[in-house]
Amino acid sequence: MDSSIQIGTISGIPIRIHFTFFLIIPIFAFIIGTQIDLTVALVEQVFGLTEPISTEYITTGVMPYVLGAILSFLLFTGVFLHELAHSWVALRKGMKVGSITLFILGGASEIEDEISPNPRDELPMAIAGPLMSLFLGIVSEGVAYASLLFIPNDALAGLFFYIFGYLGILNIILFVFNLLPAFPMDGGRVLRAILAFWLPIDRATKIAAEIGRIVAIIFGIIGILSFNLVLILIAVFIYLGAGQEAAMVRYNLLLKGLYVKDAMTSPVKVISPDMPIHEVLALMQSTRHLGFPVVERGALVGMVTLQDIHTAPQIDREALQARDIMTREVVTVAPDSGLYEALRILAPNTFGRIPVVRDGEVVGIVTRSDILKIMELQEVRVTTT
Ligand SMILES: [Zn+2]
Predict the structure, then answer these.
(1) Would you put residue 332 in left (φ > 0), alpha (ψ -120 to 50) or beta?
(2) pLDDT by residue for the chain (385 residues), tens digit each?
């Protein structure tokens, strides 16, 4: 999360901007700028204008790029309001909202997910974003129409008509696109929530994910037949998203009610910072554990894994101690943390084990394979009962 900066808070929610977001404004400004004539024609067509608008301030000089920049800024303000709408509903439903981050592909709200989302909460939360986009679209089109009616100067009326007319179209595209019934789009969540009124949540997720896959395949076929690269990319994005969502919900259900203390190895073998590397290696061979917490005067100071030994320079290996090669910034969990939470920490990172710490003292270690084993056992239990 170091690659994003916080720009403020709204309703207690930290608002962050990812560095990729700063790239998208000039890119969009350029794209809109080079296609200005096409987009002017599009807006005229949508409003069914029989007479073209005055393009005096629109297509001359650097204006296309200036307008491109203004439009991309307004569009992403819309994306931000879309995310804010999700977050506001989440807050009202008593969920915690970690942050809202704007990045190159749009926005993301980090909303604490429930073990089994209640459709009464999930449905309004999922639909709030697209409804905000629809609202912004309608308001923009209203402003565009009013500009033609009430601004007496033709050139100025044309300028406002174009900006708000096109902004409205973009927001309505956002509305439609987000409501595609496929994860990770909002429409996937809306569909799952509707199904969950009648079905258990994992069945609902499975069906929603299947429908998402079908939508992805249809998009892919249309994309290939029409040589549309954007459509093909969207298809791949949706197809992968569907599988991921289904897997996470499955894990969530299997690990429900289980804590780190249920899966951890305890007591755990710890080493001191001055242990020579060859001794650490020997310990790994004799215990067949591939990582050890490093403890100095009772406190965790680091973690040594086989990976750390591999990356240590070969020549110095004889002279090195655990402290020289250990990873100092160690992510830890508490014994009472949920097992699903521990899995979420383990899954995206390369490290396969987390030390379990209670009141500053290392009381165990939990590995990805410990959690996978528990899930396999749970699967048998769930499917046989
Ligand atoms: Zn959304």
Answers:
(1) beta
(2) 457 788 888 887 888 888 777 787 888 888 888 888 888 888 888 888 888 887 777 788 888 888 888 998 898 889 889 988 988 898 888 777 777 877 765 667 766 655 456 888 889 988 999 999 999 999 999 999 999 889 888 888 888 999 999 999 999 999 998 898 887 788 988 998 999 899 887 788 888 888 988 988 998 999 999 988 888 888 888 888 777 777 777 787 788 888 888 888 878 888 999 998 888 888 988 988 888 899 988 888 888 988 888 887 777 677 888 888 888 888 888 888 888 888 877 766 556 788 898 888 888 889 888 888 888 887 776 555 4
The verdict on 140 and 287 lying in the same domain is no
Clarify whether residues 12 and 37 are in a common domain: yes
The rounded Å distance from CA 64 to ligand 1 centre is 29
Distance from Cα 40 to the centre of ligand 1, integer Å:
28
Collect residues with CB below 5 Å from ion ligand 1: 129, 186
My answer on whether 243 and 266 are in the same domain is: no
Rounded to a whole number of angstroms, the CA Rg of the chain reads 27
Q: Is 114 a catalytic residue?
A: no
**Cα 146 to ligand 1 centroid, rounded to whole Å:** 29
Q: What is the CATH number of the domain that holds 352?
A: 3.10.580.10
Q: Out of 44, 83, 122, 141, pick the active-site residue.
A: 83
CA dist list (Å): 128 to 30, 76, 135: 31, 17, 10
Residues 217 and 302 in one domain: no
Distance of CA 85 from the midpoint of ligand 1 (Å): 8
Distance 93 CA to ligand 1 centre (A): 17
203/45 Cα distance (integer angstroms): 44
